[in-house]
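Lab meeting minutes (informal)
Scribe: AK
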Amino acid sequence: MIEDADISKAIAAAAGEIGLADPDLVKLADSSRALFRADGTLANADALARDLRKRFPAAFVYREPLRTPGGRFAPLPPGVHARDLSPEDYQARLAELKRSR
């Protein structure tokens, strides 16, 4: 069985990927619903993170994907998502797209 701190770290990592803005919120995750694999690792960190987002949506950052003037998604480097950009980079990319109209 893994320690509570390891459960929190796994949930925090999964929640960070879906936009968690306040890592302290992980303390409110329902760890009683944690499921473990045979090797002792947490199997449902993603589900627990989505539950946090459902219960506390204001604690998660959501950004509209960048779109070209034609309505298509703007190209970003492979593996980079709009939610991963800093606010400054996001605004710069948005301004760049508007200039390209």
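Next up, CB showed the second protein from the same session:
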Amino acid sequence: MCFACGQRRQYPITDTAVDAGYYEDALQSINEQINTSPSNLKLRYKRLFINSHLDWIEEASGDIQRIIKEEGLSRDVYSYGIDYYEKAEDYQSLLNLVNQWKQLTGLIDYKHEIIALDGLEDEKSAKSLLWDYLNDQKTNEDVLHFASNLYQNWRDTTLAIYTMSMLYNQNNSHHYLLNNYVPILVSLGAYERAIEVVNNAEIDSSDVSQRIDIAKVYYGLGVKSKAHQLLQSLENQEVLFVRSEWYQESNQLDSAISMIDLLLKTDTTQQALLRKARLNWDKGLLFGARSLYQEVLKRDSLNSIAQESVTILNRKIAYLRKLREKETSIPFLEISTKKETENE
């Protein structure tokens, strides 16, 4: 059974729509009251409430442990505790609290136990418990989202795809899928599945990453004009690199170079210079390519790509120069026609 219910709030406090300044003043006031009445648990409950609304601006473990010691572990204190310890990244205290709640109620708080184990870098235990959680909540969108995110963090692509496909089956327009499922599908070349996700998603036209991923889907499906059209108005680094690669694959080297030239107006990093050097080389502009590689070496004399490329280009240029010199040194033989010979 999962953690879902518990005891009623003993000291209810009405939550009103107020700004942070109200809670800051309230926290200062409650601190003064607790200083004079440290054993008043009602004040400590109030401080937990106020502190939580300030996203735990102050340490809260003292209040949590004091209330547990005096009154035991209630549902309210447990809720405050798991929120505080998770945000404070105090994973050992979080795990202790989860285990205490389990022992008290018999309820398993899968999510926070997994978060604690993951935070403590006990990936094996976290994965085992997560699998149990999935089996217990196979159709729960929040659980599938939670699991997908963890599997991605653990770089477990197989299980990430598995849980995302389950999430897609439950809700094919879930907001998580477009930004996370589609990139994985693209990396695997599963463009048909990816376009299904795109067609069901709510697209944010201002989200550059989404537009890039969607463009990659269309490009993978062979709709190259649509892919370029989606990115045409964007000129950030990733877009220009991607479009440059696409043009190169289509042997449109001038267009590929033009993308990098746009990039070099604002970004003269080694990556951009190396990219243009490679394109010049592919186009047969050996001197231009060598010059760009040499520029990279001025900035980083140990850059292995530039070093190797300059060495190869020097050999190619020297060979072509010798070949040209050899061609110009061969004497031109004037051959007379048979008729001219007979006339002589």
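CB comment: The first helix runs from residue 20 to 36.
No objections, moving on.
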